[in-house]
Amino acid sequence: MTSQLFAICFNATRPSGLARFWSGVLGWELADGPDDDVAILPPDTAGFRIRFLPSQEPKIGQNRAHFDLTSASPEDQQQTVARALEFGGKHIDVGQLPEEGHVVLADPDGNEFCVIEAGNKFLADTGVIGALSCDGTQEVGYFWSEALRWPLVWDQDQETAIQSPDGGTKITWGGPPVAPKTGTNRLYFELALPTDADWEEEVDRLISLGATRTDTGEGDGGRALMLDPDGNEFSVRRPR
């Protein structure tokens, strides 16, 4: 059986504080769990959760992935920006032009994200997180399409995007040139399998698609730690 996207994970210097920020901005509920498993839950059970894991590794350069948040109207965009600033976010300059309609912000841990202007057709009907926008090759877009069995919804000029058959957030890759990777990614995918699935068989399938395994055993807490074709970390949880 195919892995499902269980969570987008943030390596965070203050997991609880970052969870409160994103819970406030998105309106998602904090999950009940142990202190080392801080997460917020989507309103739709078909969506992915966001997990915040402790890390003291410093942030170097821009992240390879960031959220694009949607807006229903200009007023809605302004309210989302104001809410982010109220919870500890800040405006940042990543080279955006004044005439561009999106607003670029960073969360309290320095992770970039955008609040997209209303009327963006590509992100229509995706939900509050319209896209996880990634720096990556066409090859890695193809890999994740096969890995998750999500169809390609964009494949042009080496730019790719996939989306669950059930809809929701799109995952996009901007094509080359891809900036060199510096250290461990702050955002990464966590995959999970149904309880009756064969975990080793799924890990082998992902390797056959182009992933590599980086751990020598089960990884941390029953996970396989892996890299996709662009060298981005991801993990596969054992069925529970």
UniProtKB/TrEMBL annotation:
Gene3D superfamilies: 2,3-Dihydroxybiphenyl 1,2-Dioxygenase, domain 1. Residues 210-240 are annotated as: Disordered. Residues 4-118, 125-239 form the VOC domain. Coiled coil: none annotated. It comes from Streptomyces sannanensis. This is VOC family protein.
